[in-house]
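Appendix B, example 12.
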Amino acid sequence: MALMVRLLFCGLFVMLLGACTSARVLTEWPASVPAQQIFLQAYEQDAVNQAQQTNVQYLTWIVRFYEGWEMMPTGWNDMTPVVLSDLGVQQAEQVAELRDELGVMIAAEWAKDNDVRIIDTAMLSLWGGVMVAALEPEVRIDAIELITDDVERLLAGELAPARINDERYASRLPIDLD
């Protein structure tokens, strides 16, 4: 019985410690992540998600999207060097702007509770693979534009999540996803 109480206490302690760590996102927002206010506004506009998760939970997932975490060490910010590599100055600026806008759209949706969100982790993985597979600079730009269009259409309800798959991108872009 004493062992059970200790295990329960340790579990509760770990949960509380995690909650304290997560609460820091409200006061110690990382400079590597777009402005917190952007995501707080997105959170406040979704009453269904607010019933499922707190703003701290939501913002914690936003930071994880950009910076990665133990379960997925590669975040959106880690893709920047790969996506911008070998681009000319003008192309790099264009792609960086597109990538930044796309990141905000994806993060704002993906960070929601699993039961609410439209964009899931499998989509993130696919889109990351598409951007990395697009070796030619022009193809990389096309890939980001196609993904952006798909994200906009997903969020508008014009594209079914089931249509986001390898075949969709392999048939529209000269890339190999294998």
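Residues 61 and 111 are 5 Å apart (CA to CA). The mean pLDDT is 87.
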